[in-house]
UniProtKB/TrEMBL annotation:
Domain of life according to the entry: Bacteria
GO molecular function: methyltransferase activity
InterPro entries (UniProt xref): SAM-dependent_MTases_sf
Originating organism: Streptomyces eurocidicus
Name assigned to this protein: Methylase
Region described as Disordered: 1-21
């Protein structure tokens, strides 16, 4: 079967390395299901796009399973710019799961606008100056109540940082980790998304946040005797006085913390 491409259509974007592993995006998926589940259930067309899923379709398959725990009507469309990867994914298609050839133009069927676009480990190869344009293009494709989640994680999903955006633009930044793998919160700096990774320098808000997080982590060291989770919860809780956190203990227990975008947005 030929790749499903609109006639005279050239996908927008560049081919990624395609690295993928089962369960790599589990932290992001679980956060999406929790934060966006109600909006998906309320959507008349709860279609999600796994943009740039890579050389194997595992992340798209897993996204469908996790979204359907909160929205049984959810559908997932895996979109890849490399035609051979689309063909390799075809045997995994089933009810609610399809694969299409495309890029940042997000080629869904006429009239459909995604309730969710997930773009994980896609923008790392781009220049920082290109990020705002890509975000704007993807946000323009969203349904009115849609969500774009763009970020980066390590190869097995232990450390992950992502930005959540609505049609109006960026809203929040989430830091998520397997707590047993963490020495200090600033270890997550290497997984900052492209919009922030070069801003982890003195004078930039994201650098100040990670500095304060490390200090809070050090102050919470006595709680390590209870567990790494209790130390994380204590450290995150102490950040609330100076940083606009938007989640609470239920998400902190998962090794997460979410901050308003405007608090961490690059200067200049």
């Amino acid at each position: 079967m030929a790749a499903r491409t609109t006639p005279h259509h050239r996908p927008i974007g560049s081919v990624t390395r395609g690295t993928t592993n089962p369960n790599r995006l589990r932290r992001m998926d679980r956060w999406i299901a929790d934060a966006h589940g109600a909006a998906l259930r309320a959507s008349a067309d709860p279609v999600a796009v796994d943009l740039g899923y890579g050389a194997a379709p595992w992340t798209a398959v897993e996204l469908l399973g996790r979204l359907r725990t909160v929205c049984p009507a959810a559908e997932v469309v895996g979109v890849e710019i490399e035609p051979a990867r689309v063909e390799a994914a075809r045997p995994y298609e089933r009810e609610g799961l399809t694969f299409r050839h495309g890029g940042f133009e997000v080629p869904l069927a006429a009239g459909r606008r995604p309730a969710l676009i997930r773009a994980a480990n896609v923008l790392r190869q781009y220049d920082e100056e290109q990020v705002a344009g890509v975000w704007a293009r993807l946000c323009a494709r969203l349904a009115p109540d849609g969500l774009l989640v763009e970020g980066t994680c390590d190869e097995i999903g232990r450390r992950h940082v992502w930005v959540a955006l609505g049609p109006e633009g960026p809203r929040t930044v989430t830091f998520a980790t397997r707590l047993g793998s963490l020495d200090t919160p600033s270890d997550l700096a290497e997984r900052l998304p492209k919009a922030l990774i070069h801003r982890n320098v003195p004078g930039e808000p994201v650098h100040a946040f990670l500095r304060d997080f490390d200090r809070a982590w050090a102050a919470a060291a006595p709680y390590a005797s209870l567990s790494a989770r209790q130390r994380w919860i204590r450290a995150v809780g102490s950040l609330q006085a100076d940083w606009p956190l938007v989640d609470g203990g239920r998400r902190w227990r998962q090794g997460e913390v979410t901050v308003r975008w405007e608090a961490l947005a690059p200067r200049g």
